[in-house]
Amino acid sequence: MEQFIKKLKREVLRPFKRKTQSKKMTFEEIENDRESYVRLNQDKRFMMNRAYDYICKYDKYAPNANFMDSGYFIQDIWGARKVLENTPKLHYDVGSSVAGFIAHLLAQKQKVVLLDIRPINN
């Protein structure tokens, strides 16, 4: 019976597990990306502060938008609201989920330029 319960639990929870790639960013890669961002950023509203870091080491190599994550869903809505409050003529976006954040912007007729180093394979 105990084995059955474990198997049932595993099968029921399977769709909710976040699927990540085994590859994750190295410390050096994170620091290089940070340095590039700091060097290129011209907007004082988006200055880096390590106190607020929440590094997602697997996201850079994950296929885009292949799972539903409620944390990202809420974040996408919040971020879209912030962009729309600033009423930009054009929003440049790097790596956001097309099915989430970008869809929220497009639904409000916000013009978007989407950039991503990952291939769109879905």
Automatic annotation (TrEMBL):
Highest taxon above the source species: Bacteria
Protein name, per record: Methyltransferase
